[in-house]
Write a structure and sequence with these properties.
Elements: E1 4-6, H1 8-15, E2 20-23, H2 26-31, H3 36-50, E3 54-61, E4 64-67, H4 71-79, E5 84-86, H5 90-97, E6 101-103, H6 105-115, E7 119-121, E8 128-129, E9 132-136, H7 138-145, E10 149-152, H8 161-170, E11 175-178, E12 197-199, H9 202-214, E13 221-224, H10 235-252, H11 259-270, H12 274-299
Parallel strand pairs: 1-4, 2-3, 2-7, 5-6, 7-10, 10-13, 11-12, 11-13
Antiparallel strand pairs: 3-4, 3-6, 8-9
Helix pairs in contact: 3-4, 3-12, 6-7, 9-12, 10-11
The structure holds pseudouridine-5'-monophosphate and manganese (II) ion.
């Protein structure tokens, strides 16, 4: 498989067309600090397994793109505080030059698709930054070009959500509300912004994914799942903290790829940990939902190219 190293369990599952869920690793290297990062990564893998799918955490270890990590490798990545944040442009560099990296949404989608995985789970996608429309995440480009079902709790609320949705529309990415009519705002269940369609079940996601494939479209499908009610941060409370965190970032001159990790970490401090609680809850909820969708996609025999449009 060239530059990819696929763990034996995952290679076998893909061969047997069993459900597999890709998991990102930037949240391990840049989202949470030790020991919480290892803990959430392990719990996400366990949540995927408990719902009947195989988890494939995707990261760069010693310059190799790895699809599925052993327990020990997951521990090593979580302990490496010098691991890079790897988006699309960083992938070829790190693979050529060596080193460890946490894969962002964009990099994970790309590697997962190359490995033949059809469902991917993250917390929240990157997008267009508030006040900096020139700073748009490569996540949006990956969503525009990579046919993989992406399960998230919306875009990270620190972003300019209306602009982020506009870019997704421009690139033809379907934005699906999973049991909601609203685009969720990561920490909060509501944003006041709409989605393209609402679904109630994993099977309905599988049907849309199959139609996308049948039509020959190569976009992702963005499945947006609101954070569980018990752990959500009311929108007004989140907004106050976001405004302050962004003002601090501007003042300190923090830009580029450092902005997202800075803002998310400040959100946790400014909300006395409630932002972290919401983040953990939505990650586990998304992992479970992604497993259900992966199972539905397998049952649906999604991806069969002989499925006819004209019936
Ligand atoms: N979680 C963090 N920090 C991050 C990310 C997650 O605490 O930087 C990653 C996500 O994986 C997301 C990416 O894909 O950041 C968006 O960053 P950028 O805007 O630089 O593309
Ligand atoms: Mn960014």
């Amino acid at each position: 498989m060239g530059a990819l190293r696929i763990a034996a369990e995952i290679a076998q599952a893909l061969e047997e067309k069993a459900p597999v869920v890709a998991l990102e690793s930037a949240l391990i290297t840049h989202g949470f600090a030790p020991p919480a990062n290892l803990d959430i990564a392990q719990r996400m893998e366990a949540a995927v397994r408990a719902e009947g799918a195989i988890p494939a955490t995707i990261a760069i270890l010693a310059g190799k793109a790895r699809i599925g990590l052993s327990e020990k490798e997951l521990e090593q990545l979580a302990a490496d505080r010098s691991a890079r944040k790897v988006s699309l442009r960083d992938l070829p560099v790190l693979l050529a030059q060596g080193g460890n990296g946490g894969a962002t949404v964009a990099a994970t989608m790309h590697l997962a698709h190359r490995a033949g995985i059809r469902v991917f789970c993250t917390g929240g996608i990157g997008g267009v930054h508030r006040g900096h429309p020139e700073d748009a995440s490569a996540d949006l480009i990956a969503l525009a070009t990579t046919p993989i079902v992406t399960v998230c709790a919306g875009a990270k609320a620190i972003l300019d959500l209306p602009r982020t949705l506009e870019v997704l529309e421009t690139h033809g990415v379907p934005v699906i509300g999973y049991t909601t009519d609203e685009f969720p705002a990561f920490y909060s269940r509501r944003s006041g912004l709409g989605v393209d369609a609402r679904v109630e079940t994993p099977e309905q996601v599988a049907q849309i994914a199959q139609m996308r494939t049948t039509l020959g479209l190569s976009t992702a499908l963005l499945v947006c799942v609101p954070v569980p009610e018990a752990d959500h941060l009311p929108a007004e409370e989140a907004e106050a903290a976001i405004a302050q965190a962004i003002a601090e970032a501007e003042e300190k001159g923090i830009g580029g790829k450092a902005v997202t990790p800075f803002l998310l970490a400040r959100m946790v401090e400014l909300t006395s940990g409630r932002a972290r609680q919401a983040n953990e809850a939505l990650l586990l909820n998304n992992a479970r939902t992604a497993a259900h969708i992966a199972r539905a996609c397998c049952a649906h025999a999604w991806g069969l190219s002989n499925f006819k449009l004209t019936e």
